[in-house]
Amino acid sequence: MTARIERTALKRTEARTRGSRKSVKRVYAPFSLRCGALLIDYIIIAAILAFSTLFARMLGGGARTAGNSVETFGILFALFVAALDLVVLAGVTGRTIGKWVTGLRIERLDGGDLGVLRTFLRHFIGYPLSFATLGLGFLIAAISTRGRSLHDLIAGSVVVYDGPPPGEHT
Length: 170
Description:
Elements: H1 2-9, E1 12-13, E2 16-17, E3 20-21, E4 26-27, H2 31-59, H3 64-93, H4 97-102, E5 104-108, H5 116-132, H6 136-143, H7 150-155, E6 157-161
Antiparallel strand pairs: 1-4, 2-3, 5-6
């Protein structure tokens, strides 16, 4: 049932490929795969926080200041990795680590690269707004014809499969 719903939700569009504009079948990413990519990104960030907290607790006891320093370092490192993954990597390549693993790409509506500023807008302004609406900003993607969430609408972006559409062999 889910596969049928996802297949019917997939739409094709025209996109730019590597400097030249040619007609390529593009498939919008299904909601469930986008959720998986987001989960991978957040697991990476949460793992950094968890390991730094665990390490700080292992130091514990008389080394309280060392534990606090490790915990602070873990928080700062997690913020650095989040900025690197969600802004720099996504802005330059169109993929976060989660999108890369799932074979997805973020791009502008016209098929161009998103860029660092739009990516910052998408992830650090759009995501909090999507969360602030009790998740409804994310659920818009499940009913939208192009699979665009609130943060995609804000940044003028769309998430597509990176490469040939699934099921088509070249």
